[in-house]
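Last lecture ended with a question: if I hand you only a sequence, what can you say about the shape of the protein? Today we answer it with a concrete record. The protein is STAS domain-containing protein. Below, first the input exactly as provided, then the predicted structure, then a couple of comments.
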Amino acid sequence: MHARRATTPEPGHRSPHRPLHVAAPGAAADPTPPRQPSPLTTDSYPEGPRKVVVVLGEVDYETAPALATALREALRTSDEGVDADLSAVRFWDCSGLNVLLRLRREALAVGKTIIVRSPSRVVRRVLTLTGTAPLFRPPQPERVPRLERAPSAFGGHHGSPADN
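The predicted structure:
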């Protein structure tokens, strides 16, 4: 086995997690593999003041631009931001994470947010390993500390006569 320089990609390189077209034994290799369905599909719909973008398939360096386009369009047409439903994502690498990080920066600049809904196992793993998962959670409402009732000048708590 020989080593290749990491900076020189192999011609026609694809992710090792994506299947390659292989000719059947004894069959001549067809230079044009059969057309396969796109490894990434997106759909969006409004939900109140937000847009939900449902992502199905694989997100890598080949499909990340399509994901960025879909998310950016949803952000542009939403009032408050985008919820990305990533429950059906089968492959997710740093290309997908970079799309989310760039979009988050754009959203915050215009007062909107990006939330990841139901990340798949592979998405959750990347977000957890990189420490970026909290960036894509819904904002938590600020909690107002509960004030304890102060004792009255007469030694009891303020309240109705029935409380005494």
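Comments.
1. The CA atoms of residues 105 and 113 lie 9 Å apart.
2. DSSP finds three helices and four strands in the chain.
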